[in-house]
């Protein structure tokens, strides 16, 4: 029974992270922390790292703390919340940095309709170079119209 509970906590946290990501992207990254996110909206950013990469650290801190406090003195639910955050972060890295922005050339020839829809929605998001007038702030759940373009 405890394995089922920990699985539900992990998957629930993973799912909730999409909402957290959407809200953070719209109101924090395109809000008061725009100065960290602005370079990400510049075409062909010339450096290996962007200031925007600081958000990976910002999101990793709660996950690391939850791993620690979820394992000490014994395994508890906080570990699995941290695991859900970590798994979402890993997925975000693979979708956003690898698939969409091609920072690593691993999945550049995909024909998957879902992945192509995510890539298209993110390109629409990046057509706005400023912090205003943004759209498609999520990462895994985007409007169906972007997926339906690929039949």
From TrEMBL:
A Gene Ontology BP annotation from the UniProt entry: xanthophyll biosynthetic process
Q: Where is the Fatty acid hydroxylase domain?
A: 13-139
Q: What is the top-level taxon of the source organism?
A: Bacteria
Q: Which taxonomic lineage is given here?
A: Bacteria, Pseudomonadati, Bacteroidota, Flavobacteriia, Flavobacteriales
Its source organism is Xanthomarina gelatinilytica
Instruction: Kindly give the InterPro entries that the UniProt entry links to this protein.
Output: BETA-OHASE-like (IPR045019), Fatty_acid_hydroxylase (IPR006694)
What is the name listed in the Swiss-Prot or TrEMBL entry for this protein?
Beta-carotene hydroxylase
> Which keywords belong to this entry?
Carotenoid biosynthesis, Oxidoreductase
What family is it from? Belongs to the sterol desaturase family.
Give the matching Pfam families: FA_hydroxylase (PF04116)
* An annotated Gene Ontology molecular function: beta-carotene 3-hydroxylase activity
């Amino acid at each position: 029974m405890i394995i089922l509970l920990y699985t539900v906590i992990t998957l629930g946290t993973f799912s909730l992270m999409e909402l957290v990501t959407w809200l953070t992207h719209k109101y924090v990254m395109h809000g008061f922390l725009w100065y960290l996110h602005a370079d990400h909206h510049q075409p062909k950013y010339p450096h290996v790292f962007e200031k925007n990469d600081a958000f990976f650290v910002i999101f990793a801190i709660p996950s690391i703390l939850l791993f620690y406090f979820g394992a000490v003195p014994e395994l508890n639910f906080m570990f699995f919340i941290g695991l859900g955050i970590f798994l979402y972060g890993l997925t975000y890295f693979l979708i956003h940095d690898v698939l969409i922005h091609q920072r690593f050339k691993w999945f550049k020839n995909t024909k998957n309709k879902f992945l192509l829809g995510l890539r298209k929605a993110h390109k629409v998001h990046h057509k706005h170079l400023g912090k205003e007038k943004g759209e498609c702030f999520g990462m895994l759940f985007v409007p169906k119209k972007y997926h339906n373009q690929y039949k």
